[in-house]
Amino acid sequence: MRASHMSGVALPATLIFLFVTSTVAQAFQAVDEFEKEPILYSASSPENRVSALKTRIETGDLTLARTPEHGYLPALLEALDVPVESQTLVFSKTSLQMRRISPRTPRAIYFNDDVYVGFCQSGDVLEISAVDPKLGTVFYTLDQHSPEKPVIQRQTESCLVCHSSSRMEGVPGHIIRSLYVDAGGQPLLSAGSRTVDHTTPVKDRWGGWYVTGTHGAQKHLGNLVIRGRDVEEPVDNSEGQNVTDLKFRINPNRYLSAHSDIVALMVLEHQALVHNRLTKASFETRQALAYDEMMRKTLDRPEGTLLESTVRRIQSVSERLVEALLFVNEAKLTEPLKGTSGYAEQFATQGPKDDQRRSLRDLDMSTRMLKYPCSYLIYSEAFEQLPTASKNCVLQKLWDVLSGTDLSEKYSHLSQDDRRAIREILLQTKSDLPDYWKI
Predict the structure, then answer these.
(1) Alpha carbon of 120 to those of 97, 113, 141, 187: distances in Å?
(2) What is each CA distance from 414 to 207, 277, 370, in whole angstroms?
(3) Burial code of 97-129, b = ≥16 C-beta within 10 A, e = fewer?
(4) CA separation (Å) from 327 to 173, 175, 200, 261?
């Protein structure tokens, strides 16, 4: 799931080749690491929402209806509880079915808290990824041409080449990019590329994506198609701002929604980062503990003790997860953002609320994404099933920050009111918090 920005400096073809080669080499190196004990990514059986659906279809417990226009897409979204309002549209040729993608025929992405679905017009497959508590992101395809029963297949090598690089913490994950794209949908890589998450300034986001919604005088790179092969800075994207209707750019009747909602894009970018950090915390902790156990036996060390290096590894990866959960370095909004699809309203109705009707899914979208800047993914199965050592470390760090024990500059974006509100919401809505949270 991807598309990003540019420095404006043209890179020689040789450097582009070296960059791509290096990226692929790094991806294979990362794959080699998590294919070993204790992760065994490809050899392990997934247990996630898509694998459960796959079993139900194969046993005949569930059937999916197929439509002429969209194949199994509507039925799949309903079965996985993925809202149509989440639709975002990316027109850069940066995915499995790139020959189907162009500014006239963008790829649609739909998502909820733990599933992502990609759809291309006349595509051979639906592209699916699920957040698996033990394996991180697991990739699947669903055959769009199977007339009797849909066939869901797990994919590994073909997806991992792009979806396990250093841009995704070196684990199976998602990448969202912003880049300049020509009229055929080809990324203009010589103009640069940027990975996007909630720390990325709005002005650098959404190159290669359609964006519907209003955002005042803030600029972004969405809805922009470069005519020709050269990018001349500064780029005039005035026609791409505050767009609420895509009918002159695409045929909206070919999609389940006419929108590529700006709020949905914001949420997508945030949760892709957190999902990658959750996977990294899980893998790194399990790998550190496995190495520590091997060294304990080698050195005949007593049980119940950990090497200082093991403790540091777990603490480091846990703190990086906390930084993502608490929106450290979140890009500031200077004017309100408002979507067009109803996604904001749908998103806010999900999840638990405290006795004041406050929720971690309450949106701000005026100065920042969430009213209470702590990720709603703290309720996810991926968080719940973190290794105990990492989860304990994360909860301790969260408590230190939210209680005011940790007042370091890194977390200075959280006011005393923010910390108190997040703490109160979690105490009422998350049942498995340690006792020291309740003092």
Answers:
(1) 7, 22, 12, 18
(2) 30, 21, 12
(3) beebbbbebbbbbbbbbbbbbbbbbebebbbbb
(4) 19, 18, 11, 21
Distance of CA 266 to the CA centre of its chain: 10
Cα 341 from Cα 108, distance rounded (Å): 14
Tell me the C-alpha distance between 125 and 121, whole Å: 10
In whole angstroms, what is the distance from residue 41 CA to residue 134 CA? 9
Hey, CA dihedral for 49, 55, 59, 63, is it positive or negative? positive
- The span from the CA of 428 to the CA of 418, in Å, is 16
- Estimate to the nearest angstrom the gap between the alpha carbon of 33 and the chain centroid: 22
- What residue segments make up the domains of the chain, in order of their start? 13-254, 262-438
Residue 415 neighbours by CB distance under 10 Å = 10
Q: DSSP character for 265?
A: H
Residues 282, 303: Cα–Cα separation, whole Å: 22
What is the dihedral sign for C-alpha 12, 17, 20, 26? negative
Nearest to 317 by CA among 171, 436, 139, 201: 171
At 275 the three-state DSSP class reads helix
Within 10 angstroms of residue 376's Cβ, the number of other Cβ atoms is 22
Q: Is the pLDDT of residue 369 over 70?
A: yes
What values do phi and psi take at 141, rounded to 5? Answer: -130, 150
d(CA 317, CA 340): 37
For residues 236 and 343, the answer to whether their CB atoms sit within 8 Å is no
- The arithmetic mean of pLDDT across residues 371-391, rounded, is 98
Q: What is the pLDDT of residues 302-338, one digit of tens each?
A: 888 899 999 999 999 999 999 999 999 999 999 999 9
Model confidence over 158-198: pLDDT tens digits?
666 565 566 667 899 999 999 999 999 999 998 989 999 99
Establish whether the linkage from the previous residue to 38 is cis, with ω within 30° of 0. yes
